[in-house]
Design a protein that fits this description.
By secondary structure, the chain is an alpha+beta fold. The protein has one helix and five strands.
């Protein structure tokens, strides 16, 4: 999981991760990598993808991380 406040910071972190992964022969699969934007305002949580280094990652409203449902509106009702 990568967390950044602005898209340029996210892009830089993804480049570093890709570079490091390549050094140990790991491949980041864009079709299995998702993007989520968090915000207090629902209008600032678009589900459009993020394009980083020419690769577009799908936008999602929720995903499961280490067995916990994470969503972009901080709602835990679905998990309960």
């Amino acid at each position: 999981m990568v967390i950044a406040r602005k898209l340029p910071a996210l892009e830089a972190m993804c480049v570093d991760i890709s570079r490091g992964a390549g050094r140990v022969s790991l491949v980041i699969k864009p079709d299995e990598t998702k993007y989520m934007r968090f915000s207090a305002s629902p209008s600032r949580r678009p589900l459009k993808g993020a394009t980083i280094n020419g690769v577009t990652y799908a936008g999602v409203a929720e995903f499961i991380y280490l067995g916990t449902l994470v969503n972009n509106d901080n709602n835990v009702e679905k998990e309960i």
